[in-house]
Structure formats: C-alpha cells, structure tokens
C-alpha cells in the first residue's frame, strides 16, 4: 500500500503531520491499519502507476496525458494568491530589474521550466506564449531545471530570464523560504486550471475511494487541524469531475494550433 504527497513538500514535516492526521481518521472510520510513513518517490510517474497506490498527489498534465487508469480522489483548495477555490495558476517570475517588462519583452530570451510534463511550469506557459510565437518559436533557449525551486535558482543566478511558477509553491516559499525569492518579481500570470489532483490506483475498491474522500473532508474540516492546514495553505477539499481537467488538454491544443509544440 503506497502513500505519498510529493508535490508541495516545501516543509516536509508539515506534510508528514497531515498524513498522520489523515491516517488516524482513516483508521477511525475503517478499523483498518495504514502505513505509518509517507513515501517521497524520485520517479513520480512510475510511482503513480503502481497498482497498490492508495493515495498520492499528481499534476493535472500527467493526469490527463499519462494516467488514464488512475481514479481521481479529489482536489484541495489552497489559500494563496492566484488560487480560486480548487483552481490555481502560475505566476511569471523574472529578476527584479525587469519588473516593468511584459511577456512580449522576453522574445528570444531564456526560459526555465521544471519539466515537460508540468501543467504549471510548462503547459500553461506554452499556451500563453503561443499567440506571440513566430514559426512556432518564442523563447531563444529553454532549460529544464527539474523543479520549480530550481527554476527560481536559475533566475537568481542569471541562468534563465523568466519562469512560470505554481502560485501555491510561491506562497509556501514566501512564508517559509523567502530567501529563495530574493531579487525576483512577478510580471504576469497564466490561465487558471483545476489544482493538483489527489489520485488512487485503478484497483482501489469503490468503498475505499469513498473512505478516502470522507477522511479527507473530515480532516480538513476538523478544527483541531486548523493550524496544520493553515501552514499547508489547505482550506478545503473538493471532488471535481474528471472532465474539469480537460482544460489542460485544451491548453496544449491551443498552443499546437499556433504551431507551438515546445517552449
């Protein structure tokens, strides 16, 4: 039985504490035991495809593109600038000296992105620059950093000029790792999309899926967990229809219609 919550681990101790609260709620509701510790997998896509995955959090782009077999558990709403209910967006981050620039000013410049399978760092930005592209190109150079925090490091160290950063990640860093945002500024934002989905394996029984949803609702609503959820920016849990995530596919198709297949 695999459990992970790998996507917003700026303060991993808080994420671990949230799992402990959720685990106790699951035990109380079901009378069954659950793993005492979270996993922090390196190879996320293969982890999300495991048949014994009970709960994890993925990105909307892998959900739509690569994970048709998993079941959608639900989506957290986060209390962060750029979020609206269970929807979120990315902010366009540049160095402070370019804080008055617009996106069009970065034609031919260097972009950093976390990974090609990211909605927040890649797909949403690709859709945004597509109308500005010429012959399918806008940026002069694109560097894959491996993560949002690494993209910010690229900006700070002059290795890239612009990046699209998940608004929840930005707010967590602003609160707990402000040094990682020093010398940086926001000049714009991407379109909104449903937030990072919680998923479970295709083999998870319907009654277990319902148990997960009920436990998540109760943990988020429990006043005893208020401070913990506040630290994680979590303020609600929603079961969105899977079809809501098709806006992510539409963003990809929008870029492709402009001839833009990559950053």
Which architecture of the largest domain would the CATH scheme give at its second level?
A: 3-Layer(aba) Sandwich
Please give the number of β-strands.
Answer: 12
Q: What amount of the residues lies in strands?
A: 15-25%
The main β sheet shows up as: 5 strands, mixed
Straight-line N-to-C gap: 37 Å
**Overall pLDDT metric:** 97
CATH structural fold name of the largest domain: D-Maltodextrin-Binding Protein, domain 2
CATH class of the largest domain: Alpha Beta
**How many domains in all?**
2
Which sequence of SSEs, written as H and E, runs from N to C? EHHEHEEEEHEHEHEEEHHEH
Low-pLDDT residue intervals, each spanning 5 or more residues: none
CATH superfamily of the largest domain: Cypl, domain I
**What's the helix count?**
9
Structural class: alpha/beta
What do these coordinates show?
The chain is of the alpha/beta class. The mean pLDDT is 97. A five-stranded mixed beta sheet has the order 1-2-11-3-12. A five-stranded mixed beta sheet has the order 7-6-8-5-9. It has a two-stranded antiparallel ribbon with strand order 4-10. The protein starts with a strand and ends in a 6-residue tail after the last helix. Helix 1 crosses helix 7, helix 1 (12-30) crosses helix 8 (226-232) and helix 4 (119-129) runs parallel beside helix 9. The longest helix has 19 residues, at 12-30. The chain has helices spanning 12-30, 44-48, 60-65, 119-129, 148-156, 167-176, 206-221, 226-232, 246-257; strands at residues 2-3, 53-57, 71-78, 87-88, 90-95, 110-113, 141-144, 162-166, 184-189, 193-194, 197-200, 234-238. It contains nine helices and twelve strands. Strand 6, helix 4 and strand 7 form a beta-alpha-beta unit. It folds into two domains: 2-79 and 194-248, Cypl, domain I (D-Maltodextrin-Binding Protein, domain 2, 3-Layer(aba) Sandwich); 90-191, D-Maltodextrin-Binding Protein, domain 2. 36% of the residues lie in helices and 20% in strands.
């Amino acid at each position: 039985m695999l459990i992970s919550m790998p996507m917003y681990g700026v303060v991993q101790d808080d994420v671990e504490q949230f799992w402990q609260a959720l685990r106790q709620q699951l035990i109380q509701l079901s009378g069954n035991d659950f793993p005492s510790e979270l996993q922090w997998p390196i190879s996320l896509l293969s982890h999300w495809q495991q048949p014994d995955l009970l709960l994890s959090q993925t990105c909307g782009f892998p959900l739509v593109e690569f994970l048709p077999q998993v079941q959608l558990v639900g989506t957290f709403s986060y209390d962060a600038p750029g979020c609206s209910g269970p929807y979120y967006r990315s902010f366009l981050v540049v160095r402070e000296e370019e804080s008055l620039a617009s996106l069009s000013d970065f034609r031919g410049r260097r972009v950093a992105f976390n990974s090609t399978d990211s909605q927040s760092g890649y797909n949403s930005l690709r859709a945004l620059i597509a109308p500005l592209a010429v012959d399918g190109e806008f940026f002069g150079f694109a560097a894959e950093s491996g993560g949002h925090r690494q993209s910010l490091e690229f900006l700070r160290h002059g290795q890239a000029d612009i990046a699209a950063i998940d608004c929840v990640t930005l707010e967590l860093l602003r609160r707990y790792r402000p040094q990682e945002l020093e010398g940086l500024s926001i000049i714009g934002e991407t379109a909104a999309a449903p937030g990072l989905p919680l998923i479970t394996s295709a083999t998870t029984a319907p009654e277990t899926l319902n148990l997960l949803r009920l436990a998540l609702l109760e943990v988020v609503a429990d006043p005893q967990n208020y401070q913990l959820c506040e630290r994680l920016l979590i303020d609600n849990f929603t079961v969105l229809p899977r079809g809501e995530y098709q806006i992510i596919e539409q963003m990809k198709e929008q870029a492709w219609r402009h001839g833009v297949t990559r950053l």
